[in-house]
Amino acid sequence: MEPQDRKLYVQILAQMLIADGVLADEERAHLDTVMDGLDMPEQERAEALRGVSIDSPVEERVAGLGEEAKKTLLTEVKKALVVDGEMTNSEKYFLERVETLLS
Questions:
Q1: How many other CB atoms are found less than 10 A from the CB of residue 92?
Q2: In contact, 53 and 15? CB cutoff 8 Å
Q3: What does the alpha-carbon distance between residue 1 and residue 55 come to, in Å, rounded to a whole number?
Q4: Nearest-angstrom CA–CA distance, 99 and 78
Q5: From CA 81, how far away is CA 16, in angstroms rounded?
Q6: Environment class of residue 50 by beta-carbon count within 10 Å: exposed (0-12), middle (13-18) or buried (19+)?
Q7: Which of 3, 5, 12, 48 ranks highest by number of CB atoms within 10 Å?
Q8: How confident is residue 11, by pLDDT bands cut at 50, 70 and 90?
Q9: How many other CB atoms sit within 10 Å of the CB of residue 15?
Q10: What is the largest CA-CA distance in the chain?
Q11: CA–CA gap between residue 71 and residue 46 (Å, rounded)
C-alpha cells in the first residue's frame, strides 16, 4: 500500500474509533497493530493521527484511497468496531456510510 493510502486508511479507522467520543485503550492498541501491519514509519503514523477529526468528511478519504486499500477497508472497519466489545449508534452510522461509499 502506498504511503498516502496508508495515511487515509488509518485516518478512516481512527475516525470511526473516535465516533463515540472515546478512544479506548483496546481501540488504540488495535490501531497500533494495524499501523504495524502496514509497516508505517513513526513519522507517517504521527502525520496520519494528527489529521484525525470526527468532523472530517469520510467521503473524501474513501474516494482518495487506491483500489488495494478499498478492498480491505470494510473488513478492517468491521474488526475495529468490535475491539472494545460494543458498537455505539455513532459507530454503526459510520459503518453504514463506509459500506455505502465502497459499494
A1: 12
A2: yes
A3: 25
A4: 10
A5: 8
A6: exposed
A7: 12
A8: very high
A9: 20
A10: 33
A11: 24
Q: What is the tens place of the pLDDT at every residue in 60-93?
A: 999 999 998 998 998 898 888 888 777 778 888 8
Residue with the bigger pLDDT between 23 and 8: it is 8
Interval 30-40 mean pLDDT = 95
The residue to which cell 463506509 is assigned? 98
Given CA atoms 38, 43, 44, 45 in this order, what sign does their dihedral have? Answer: positive
- In this prediction the pTM is 0.88
Residues in the chain: 103
Nearest to 16, CA basis, from 68, 64, 79: 79
Q: Which amino acid is located at 87 in the chain?
A: M
pLDDT > 90? residue 95:
no
